[in-house]
Every structure is written in C-alpha cells, then in structure tokens.
Amino acid sequence: MRPLLVAATEAEARYFPRDLDVLITGIGKVAAAMSLTRRLASYEADELAGLEIVNIGTAGALRSEMTGLFEIGTVINHEINGDAIRALGYDPRETLQLGPAETVLATGDVFVTDPALRDVLGRRAHLVDMEGYAVAYVAGEFGVPVRLVKYVSDSADETAHDWNTLVEHCARALGDWVSTSLV
To answer: What angle do CA 128, 130, 132 make, to 5 degrees?
Structure first.
C-alpha cells in the first residue's frame, strides 16, 4: 500500500519524510472533507486501489491518563444529533469503526477548551480532534483503507490555547512515527 498522509496543518507535518505524499487539508471537518475529496477524485481507479490514507495529527485528551501517540479504532462525529436523525428514519453514521484499537476519537468543529465539554465528550471518547471523522468518512466513500494516528497535544481545556507552542514536540513525535512505521 502507498500511503497518503493527511494532516490539518503544515505545523503537524513538519517532520514527515519529504518523499511521502502529504495532503494539508486545513482545520475542521469541512476543510478536511473537501481537500481529501478533491484529491481522491483526481485519482484513477487503479491509483485508488493501491492507496492507504493515514490521517496523522494532534488531538486533545478527554481523559487524564491519555498521553502520547494512539492509533484510533473508532471515530465519532460528536456534533451530530444521531438520535434525532434516526427518529426521522435516516442513518446518521455518526460512529465509524476503523480497526481493532480501543481508542475512540471524537471529531467536531469545536476547538475544545472548556473542561465541562471535555468531561461530556470524555464519557464517549478518549481523544478529540477537528478532522479525523471527516477523513475517515471520505476514505470510506471512496473505498480506500484509512488509519488515524493522533498524538496528544493538550488536555482539551484551557491548555489547548497553547497549541501553537505545543505542536513542535507533537510534530517531532509524529514525524518519528511516520519514519519508523511507514517508510
């Protein structure tokens, strides 16, 4: 499989090996979905067949024991009211199973800095980000295997405001993982 590395920002991808294919999407679900859809739509069917998408970036910890690097097994869209949509007779697909890992990632367009919201999300997930669900959804629609790998940058509280200074350490760890796991 040939990896397509997908990151939200250049800062997160700073230490990826330069010979790999990297897509920088921008921040948030809409930006991630649009950028990845545009890229995948440009490929021929045989190019898609040999591709694996690896969404790699930072995430906030929703639980105090969560530090370091995690591969995601389940991703949820935490901003959709799945019960209401199901009541209308539709499947909201708010939960996507990606693999056997136990770590659950909640994705939403809210940059989580509020401890009360962190605690609510922490009942359903271990980590929170702003792109993972969108990347997994688009990959699934195109029939391309996807992995989500996240490095904890903050505690999804007021410390998240320091993301710009914390991302350097995270980017180095993410680059090391890419170099040892994908190259």
So the answer is: 80
Give CA–CA dist 108/106, Å, rounded. 7
Q: How far apart are CA 102 and CA 134, in angstroms?
A: 19
Helix (H) or strand (E) holding 129, with range, is: strand 127-129
> Tokens standing for 1?
């499989």
According to DSSP, the residues that pair with 98 across neighbouring strands are: none
Asked if residue 173 lies in contact with residue 125, where contact means CB atoms within 8 angstroms, the answer is no
**CA distance linking residue 27 with residue 135, whole number of Å:** 12
CB 101 within 8 A of CB 69: no
CA quadruple 133, 177, 41, 111: dihedral sign: positive
Global pTM reads: 0.96
Residues in a beta bridge with 107: 77, 129
Backbone φ and ψ of 110, nearest 5°: -85, 125
Tell me what pLDDT residue 48 has: 95
pLDDT, tens digit (0-9, with 9 covering 90-100), for 5-35:
999 999 999 999 999 999 999 999 999 999 9
Return the closest-CA partner of residue 59 out of 138, 22, 112: 112
